[in-house]
């Protein structure tokens, strides 16, 4: 009897000698060794959907900020969250099955152990970024989906957050929690309207230059702009740069959020003048960082930490001004990479609670879900704000007692709409920052002056086996190899305001070392010494 699962696996055989891992950002590696993985992800997506009684599951084909020759794939849960951990493990095992028969057997094993009725409908929604390999990999994925008998919707090119949005919309359609219309137009209309309402007549000052990393964010931003208030209507002047998706080899090259954050430099193609507000998206538009050059041509980065502090302070004001402070508290979630000055600012100036989690969006998201309002951002620009169900209800129910409260409440409600609750979204985050700056009447200089970052240094250390490095306390301390942490502590003691940690990368075969201290020289020195210890 024909076995469609084995046949699909046969069509896209796994290369010998490679091991795949579903990591913090799904499977990600050189695009030319991913065919078999995509087919198997198709099978897993169908199973996951069936396990959830036919809810829509998302599959995004992207390698985010990686070079053009890479690609990757990740799965999205029904409300737009990252894949459940247990299913990451199943995905990894499936990707590493050697023969078509093994794949088919494992497919049935999963169904059996998870009590999945294979007659349940499976629904999967798919999109990809603009990489040249995307079309081929989509074909491999579809072979898997068809073999598993899944219904699928292909949205073509989308940003990663747009795909998360579609998944959430499809699963909430027709319910009281409906998130929006599951179309691209629906996405632009929702966020465009929320932006206009959240501005509430305040005109953003100056313009904004947006570097789109030559990725999918370029054409999508150009489309979104059509739904935003025009300059004449009191809107924002947006200049789009690095939006060339015709030449896929230019993706993330000398541009994009990762380039700017890592090199602490504006993309060379930027023509922005002194004190002009600029931001950069990454290749799939789920990360954003801001920056500008001052009058002396010195570059200043306003990274995820800055976005978190800006947004937390704005939301704190709105909650207070609308009379909700007694019912709703705000917390900020960071990782160990957050600058010590940012943490101190949140705790001491904004007087908000800070949680620290391991690196990776899913950890931050999970911690933020436990808060009334959880503002979470990684320093690299991944992040968003999430509101608990009770908080959303309290905001919806609340009655303003005076015009001041009403004004704040209107802005708060529109701001909630403006934030992509499904996942961190560079385009929505960017509009949010613009709203906050407009209401505060702040320039980039004002924003920068809220606190001074401690000088810091990030180093990548190549080691023989990164798995030897095991951490605790949200990756801030090493438990293995034994004895190293004590030596790191001794080095930290030698500098003023020192802090340092080492952790195995989840995306590259290396250990990352972070150090900060009172001065540039001390931070550099500390980073070098810690790197020597882990080598
Ligand atoms: C992944 C994570 C990102 C994290 C980065 C760290 C997601 C969607 N992406 O790209 O949040 O900052 O890994 O990389 O979770 P590293 O482990 O190599 O330092
Ligand atoms: Zn990304």
What would a concise description of this structure say?
The chain is an alpha/beta fold. It contains 18 helices and 19 strands. The chain is about 40% helix and about 20% strand.
Please provide a written account of the structure.
This protein has 535 residues and is α/β, with parallel strands linked by helices. The chain folds into four domains: 4-157, Alpha-D-Glucose-1,6-Bisphosphate, Chain A, domain 3 (3-Layer(aba) Sandwich), CATH 3.40.120; 186-302, Alpha-D-Glucose-1,6-Bisphosphate, subunit A, domain 3 (Alpha-D-Glucose-1,6-Bisphosphate, Chain A, domain 3); 304-427, Alpha-D-Glucose-1,6-Bisphosphate, Chain A, domain 3 (3-Layer(aba) Sandwich); 456-534, Alpha-D-phosphohexomutase, C-terminal domain (TATA-Binding Protein). It is built from 18 helices and 19 strands. The chain has helices at residues 4-11, 35-51, 85-95, 100-113, 134-147, 160-172, 184-199, 217-225, 257-263, 304-321, 340-349, 361-368, 389-397, 403-418, 426-440, 444-448, 484-493, 520-534; strands spanning 27-30, 56-61, 70-76, 123-128, 151-157, 207-211, 237-241, 277-281, 288-293, 299-302, 330-335, 353-357, 373-377, 383-387, 456-461, 470-472, 477-480, 499-504, 511-516. The strands form five sheets. It has a five-stranded mixed sheet with strand order 1-3-2-4-5, sandwiched between helices. It is globular, with a radius of gyration of 23 Å. The N and C termini lie far apart (55 Å). The mean pLDDT is 96. The site of 2-acetamido-2-deoxy-6-O-phosphono-alpha-D-glucopyranose has 13 residues, from loops. It is an enzyme of class 5 (isomerase). Residues 460-532 form the Alpha-D-phosphohexomutase C-terminal domain. Mg(2+) binds at residues 64, 282, 284, 286.
């Amino acid at each position: 009897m024909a076995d469609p699962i084995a046949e699909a696996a046969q069509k896209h055989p796994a290369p010998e000698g490679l091991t795949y891992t579903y990591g913090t950002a799904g499977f990600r590696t050189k695009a030319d060794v991913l065919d078999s993985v995509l087919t198997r992800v198709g099978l897993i997506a169908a199973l996951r959907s069936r396990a959830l009684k036919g809810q829509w599951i998302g599959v995004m084909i992207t390698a985010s900020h990686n070079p053009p020759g890479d690609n990757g794939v990740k799965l999205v849960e029904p409300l737009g969250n990252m894949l459940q951990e247990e299913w990451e493990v199943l995905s990894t095992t499936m990707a590493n099955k050697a023969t078509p028969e093994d794949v088919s057997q494992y497919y049935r094993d999963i169904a059996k152990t998870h009590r999945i009725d294979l007659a349940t409908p499976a629904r999967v929604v798919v999109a990809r970024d603009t990489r040249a390999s995307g079309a081929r990999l989509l074909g491999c994925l579809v072979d898997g989906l068809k073999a598993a008998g899944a219904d699928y919707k292909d949205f073509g090119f989308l940003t990663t957050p747009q795909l998360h949005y579609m998944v959430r919309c499809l699963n909430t359609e027709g319910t009281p929690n409906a998130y929006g219309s599951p179309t691209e137009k629906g996405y632009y209309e929702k966020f465009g309207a929320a932006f206009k309402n959240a501005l509430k007549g305040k005109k953003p000052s100056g313009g904004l230059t947006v570097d789109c990393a030559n990725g999918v964010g370029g054409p999508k931003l150009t489309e979104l702009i059509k739904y935003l208030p025009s300059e004449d209507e009191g809107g924002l002047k947006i200049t789009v740069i690095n939006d060339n998706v015709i030449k896929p080899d230019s993706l993330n090259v000398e541009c994009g959020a990762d380039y700017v954050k890592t090199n602490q430099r504006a993309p060379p193609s930027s023509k922005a003048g002194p004190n002009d507000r600029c931001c950069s998206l990454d290749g799939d538009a789920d990360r954003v960082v801001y920056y500008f050059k001052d009058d002396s041509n010195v570059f200043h980065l306003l990274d995820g930490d800055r976005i978190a502090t800006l947004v937390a302070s704005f939301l704190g004001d709105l909650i207070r001004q609308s009379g909700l402070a007694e019912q709703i508290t705000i917390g900020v979630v960071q990782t160990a990479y957050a600058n010590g000055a940012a943490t101190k600012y949140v705790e001491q100036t904004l007087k908000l609670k800070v949680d620290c989690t391991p690196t990776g969006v899913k950890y931050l998201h999970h911690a933020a879900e436990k808060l009334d309002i959880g503002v979470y951002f990684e320093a690299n620009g991944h992040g968003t704000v999430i509101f608990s169900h009770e908080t959303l209800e309290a905001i919806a129910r609340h009655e303003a007692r005076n015009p001041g409260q009403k004004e704040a409440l209107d802005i708060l409600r529109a701001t909630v709409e403006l934030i992509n609750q499904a996942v961190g979204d560079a385009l929505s985050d960017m509009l949010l920052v613009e709203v906050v700056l407009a209401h505060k009447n702040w320039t980039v200089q004002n924003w920068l002056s809220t606190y001074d970052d401690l000088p810091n240094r990030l180093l990548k250390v190549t080691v023989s086996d990164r798995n030897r490095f095991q951490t605790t306390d949200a990756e801030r301390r090493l438990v293995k190899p034994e004895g190293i942490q004590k030596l790191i502590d001794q080095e930290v003691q030698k500098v003023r305001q020192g802090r340092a940690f080492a952790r195995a990368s989840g995306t590259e075969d290396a250990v990352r070392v972070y150090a900060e201290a009172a001065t540039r020289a001390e931070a550099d020195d500390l980073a070098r010494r810690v790197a020597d210890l882990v080598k």
